Amino acid sequence: MEAPQGGFLLSKIDFAKPALNINDQIELLKERGLEIDDERKATYFLTYVGYYRLSGYFRYYADPNDPQLERLKPGTSFEHLMDVYAFDRRLRALLSRSFERIEVAIKATLSGEGAVTHGPFWLCDETHFDRGSHGHIKMLMDEYIGDRKAAHQHIFINHFMQKYSNPYPPCWMMMELFSFGAISKIYKNAKGPIRIKVASHFGLQHDILESWLHSLSFARNVCAHHGRIWNRKFTIKPKIPKVYASHWPASSHDRLYVLCAMIWHLINIIDGNSPWKKRLLHLIDTRPNIPLRAMGFSDGWADTPPWSTPQISGSTAKAAL
């Protein structure tokens, strides 16, 4: 069968790579130039982590002189790859903690601003959303409420459904059900006044916050599914506030650095006493063999905004950037 690609028809072939047992996998890694001093440790790692998952980490160390990029750079060891893997796991855990804080804060401000201005059921009213977008918002609500699964999974929803005749719970209950991705979509489609009020809590213009939530939602899903994060090239580039433009090089806009910088900007406002930055610095400092530039970090990054910004509280959040 042929498929179009770039204006040309390319012939497809059947997948013919055989499955390899652990011993054969170790031999293949050796053939590709990986130094393995402890085969027992390698066997354990390949058994419980898997060759294919590991391959995502050693692609960075491919020998540029190999046309097929299958051989590894001289001196690359299995211990080194395990160190990178362990770093990535700790990094994912650190990012996941930040996503929880940000998600809760966005839910609280979005629910609060909408409810105070338009009432508890503003999510049900299409006049509070851009033209033509409320159908999608209603689909999101039906996804969580329509089949009444939520009533079985959440006591507060079950109580509401039994006591009240409204088809949907008030916004503050609905927010507890929505995922980060759903919240991002609701914010994107809400009309300007609500968006502006919510964004002001985080010292950002509303279009910047919309872009950030989209990027953070994608990264959150990568972490939730245990995807490789340390040197990932993100396909969703966030908008950059002017105040940070000179400090966040264009080459880092699709890398981990800008993701971490966005997170710290938000966390610093949400919790002025958060140890998140210190934990990131400690993680990086204790892994000197991890190539920072592969993550978009440049020399002296910790001395530039927002890292150099004094820790603040929400009540002293600066004007929108």
Outline:
This protein is mainly α and 321 residues long. It is built from 14 helices and two strands; from the N terminus they run ββαααααααααααααα.
Give a structural overview.
The chain is mainly α. The chain has two domains: about 45 residues, no CATH class; about 230 residues, no CATH class. The chain is about 55% helix and about 0% strand. Strand 1 and strand 2 form a beta hairpin. The C terminus is likely disordered. InterPro entries: Abi_system_AbiD/AbiF-like (IPR011664). Pfam families: Abi_2. This is Abortive infection bacteriophage resistance protein.
Strand order in the largest sheet: 1-2
Percent of residues in β-strands? under 5%
Distance between the termini: 52 Å
Count of individual beta strands: 2
Helix/strand order: EEHHHHHHHHHHHHHH
Structural class by secondary-structure content:
mainly alpha
User: Tell me, what's the shape?
Assistant: globular
For the largest beta-sheet, the strand count, sense and barrel status come to: 2 strands, antiparallel
- Helix count? 14
Low-confidence stretches: 314-321
Helix content: 40-55%
Number of domains: 2
Our Rg estimate from Cα atoms comes to 24 Å
Mean pLDDT: 90
List keywords for this structure.
321 residues; disordered C terminus; mainly alpha; two-stranded antiparallel sheet; 2 domains
Chain-wise SSE layout:
Layout: E1 2-5, E2 8-11, H1 22-31, H2 39-48, H3 51-58, H4 78-118, H5 134-145, H6 149-153, H7 155-163, H8 171-177, H9 180-189, H10 192-200, H11 206-224, H12 242-245, H13 256-270, H14 276-285
Antiparallel strand pairs: 1-2
Organism: Methylobacterium terricola
Pfam family, one: Abi_2
Protein name: Abortive infection bacteriophage resistance protein
